[in-house]
Automatic annotation (TrEMBL):
Keywords from the UniProt entry: Hydrolase
Co-factor requirement: Mg(2+)
Gene source species: Trichodesmium erythraeum (strain IMS101)
Pfam assignment, any one: NUDIX
The UniProt record lists the keyword Hydrolase: yes
InterPro entries attached to this UniProt entry: NUDIX_hydrolase-like_dom_sf, NUDIX_hydrolase_dom
MF terms in GO: hydrolase activity
Residue ranges of every copy of the Nudix hydrolase domain listed in the record: 5-143
Family matches, as CDD domains: NUDIX_Hydrolase
Lineage: Bacteria, Bacillati, Cyanobacteriota, Cyanophyceae, Oscillatoriophycideae
Protein name: NUDIX hydrolase
Domain of life: Bacteria
């Protein structure tokens, strides 16, 4: 089944430190646009979304999470790299178990043979629309 005809279920973690969010940077090569979103990843069949969230953070940046609290479900239909996508996001608020992650400005990780960057960004940069966060209604969960 192609990505065009499939709804993807994601577990994403909102990690906040004061006015900063821990964000993953992405790039759409068709739109030639940089965007940001909180980290996490796909939920596998038979896996609870909370477990997927913990697994994804461990796989991608070797981080343990704590204080995990469910915030809600978001639905997002969008274009990425010229293809229409549809996803259901299970969103969690959480913290890093290891304080060292709050001291790192940015780090690089690999996701599906793609080099990616995660970094701390001021929420105000998204609220002012200087930077694009996806999905766009995500900021409702940051207040």
């Amino acid at each position: 089944m192609s990505k065009k005809n499939k709804i993807r279920v994601l577990a994403l973690g909102l990690i906040r430190d004061g006015d900063r969010l821990f964000i993953s940077q992405g790039y759409d090569s068709i739109k030639q646009e940089t965007f940001y979103r909180v980290m996490g990843g796909g939920v596998d069949f038979g896996e609870y979304s909370r477990d997927a969230l913990q697994r994804e953070f461990k796989e991608e940046i070797e981080a343990e999470l704590t204080n995990i609290k469910y915030l809600g479900c978001m639905e997002n239909i969008f274009m990425f790299d010229g293809e229409e996508r549809h996803e259901l996001i299970q969103l969690y608020k959480c913290d890093f178990a290891d304080f060292k992650f709050y001291q790192i400005e940015e780090l690089t990780f690999w996701e599906k043979e793609r080099k990616k960057k995660a970094l701390w960004v001021s929420i105000d940069r998204f609220k002012s629309r200087e930077l694009k966060i996806v999905p766009e209604n995500f900021l409702e969960y940051c207040d």
